[in-house]
From TrEMBL:
Keywords: Calcium, Glycoprotein, Metal-binding. Belongs to the sulfatase family. Residues 2-163 form the Sulfatase N-terminal domain. This is Sulfatase N-terminal domain-containing protein. InterPro entries: Alkaline_phosphatase_core_sf (IPR017850), ARSB (IPR047115), Sulfatase_N (IPR000917). The keyword Transmembrane helix does not apply. It holds the Pfam family Sulfatase. Gene3D superfamilies: Alkaline Phosphatase, subunit A. GO terms for molecular function: metal ion binding; sulfuric ester hydrolase activity.
Amino acid sequence: IDTLAADGIVLNQYYSHTTASTSRTSLLTGVHPIHTGLQNRFIMNHSPAGAPLHYKLWPQYLKQYNYSTHMVGKWGLGFARREYTPTYRGFDSFVGFWTHSKCNYNHTSCETYRHLVCGDDSRHNTDFTANGTGVYSTHHFTDLSLHLIDTHNTAQPLFLYVA
């Protein structure tokens, strides 16, 4: 990690908002939450909203400089339209959860909206996957991240966002 940081950029000061969607949107856009319209809420599973599409995310900027861009973990920035999802927002690949709530072992998501609704939420890019089911998500995401780093072509810069 020290070598990666020495050869890259270190974010050493960042003020987080109280909700995940707001913090992620702010981090990935560089825009204060009050300007994204997400300052007072997080994006619910049933919500038709997402991180505003008129803001470019880090990986979209980095693609201009030939970066390989990958995300592992929790997205939480909306999925009501495919344009909201990670691989449409600049990431070459995504493995993890799209929703804000999840079970770390069976990789499902439950949310109460009029009644309790649960469903699968383990994804590879835009597809559902059973990979990692029964494996604690932090361990699964660590293994995937290490695999991405180990197999990465070092001639190309890498942006790996692990949430």
